[in-house]
Amino acid sequence: MMSGDRRSKTRLSSVRARTTLVATIVVGSALAVSSVVLVALLRSRLLSSVNATARNESANVVSLVEGGELPNPIPIPRGDIAAQVVSSTGKVVASTANLSGRPDLFHYPKTKGFSSVPIEREMSVPALQAGEHDHNFILVAAKVPVTVSVVAQLNKTYVGVVSGSQSKPGSSKSGKVVFTTTDPGAYYVSVWASVQAVDQSVRSLILILLLGFPVLLAVVVGSTWVITGRAFLPVERIRVDVDDISGSNLSRRVFEPGTDDEIGRLAHTMNQMLERLENAVEERKRFVADASHELKSPLSSLRTSLEIALRHPESTDWVEVSHGAIDESQRMQYIIEDLLLLAKSDVGQLLLKKEVLDLDDLIVEESRRLRSISPVRIDLNHMSPTRLIGDVERLRSVVRNLLENAVRHAESRVKVTLYQRDVTAVLEVLDDGVGVPLTERDSIFERFTRLDESRSRNLGGSGLGLAIVKSIVVAHGGAVMVHDGDDPEYSGACFVVELPRENENLMGASIGSHVQGLF
Length: 519
Fold this sequence. Notes:
The protein is built from 10 helices and 17 strands. The longest helix has about 55 residues, at about 15-65. By secondary structure, it is of the alpha+beta class. The protein folds into 4 domains: about 1-45 and about 200-235, no CATH class; about 65-200, no CATH class; about 260-345, Signal transduction histidine kinase, dimerisation/phosphotransfer (DHp) domain (Helix Hairpins, Orthogonal Bundle); about 355-505, Histidine kinase-like ATPase, C-terminal domain (Heat Shock Protein 90, 2-Layer Sandwich), CATH 3.30.565. The chain is rod-shaped, with a radius of gyration of 54 Å. A hairpin with a 2-residue loop joins β6 (about 150-155) and β7 (about 155-160). α6 runs parallel beside α10 (about 465-475), α7 crosses α8 (about 390-410) and α8 (about 390-410) packs antiparallel against α10 (about 465-475). About 45% of the residues lie in helices and about 20% in strands. Strands 1-6-7-9-8 form a 5-stranded mixed β-sheet.
């Protein structure tokens, strides 16, 4: 039960569910806002049309009043429009049929003079005959200045309204009745246009939107859920593949959909990462095996010599045994120190104690040491004074390993070149040996790598020297490489180390009397 709840909770909190939810919220919000805007825009446009119709009818009635001939009832064919003409005394002079017998429904505000700007507003007028439940109208009202007699025709009986001195109060003739206003020449025209059709159209649109809104949202939810599900199918397959990969089967790779999109690039990147992890694990395994072998050999030799000495103590030269034991233990100490240095370099903890040093002096000192134990001559005549900032002991280890490697593989002589190039110090160590095969130049700086002709431990060392050189040089911001020498007298390998000098003010030291010919 708990597993099902957890699975359900995970499904609801998945990227697929969150994407669907966000898409639904965004689309729903957009639909809601657009629906409100659409309804408001439609009502505004329809009201503008009704308002224009009311203005046109008002203008027609005003023209009848100004012309002096005003039919009663006012001939407006549309039943959703009503009109009244009222004199300044409040008497309804004429109206449409749907307002017959009704008093003045709009009292025009009393102002001095005449205004040509009509009054336009939306108002409610109950019980108009334009519609059974029609109460909302657009009103257009105008105050009309008239200087001529206005005759209202009513059932073939003419009623004359004469302003000024053209008639006398109460006078009549030929069936014509004349009315006199208290405000001669002032008439008020009011026209009402029903907005019932507008309200019906708006209500119909709102109903359509209310019915279509959930349907559209359901379509968005369903389509988003299906599309995201299909989009995340490769992700789920990649997850399953990654879940099946462990330290014992790093050779496996995740599924690549083969598409040039984010998921395809993710799968490709993960496979590249798995390849790097596999190579790193294999390198660690080889490193452990090689380190174990390197440490096992001197330890076995030390134990064998001690066991033999103990079995035959009467014939054992204990001084010689002690010297042998010291040599083997010292060899193990060197290997362990080299391994620790490389381990620190791997995790970025190779600390450098930087100070100003003369690289040419280090080369001279290490060359003198090798001269006392090797017959190989070392040519130092091609060095220029070079001062830089670095760790003295680490760079001494670089020089020592390069010189020992060159002396080990040389036939009779080694050449050292040191010069400055821009802001870089360049150290070249050449020998007249057999050189480094082109196919092995990339791997020669790896740990426990020995060339075929130097597999003997007495000649080949531990296989860590060049790896240490590379780690120290890289830690100083430099680079190391190997290629064939350009000097025909030194046809073997040429190791090149480039180190940044870091400061021009450090230059200028002189070798002096250190280099005086060949070693």
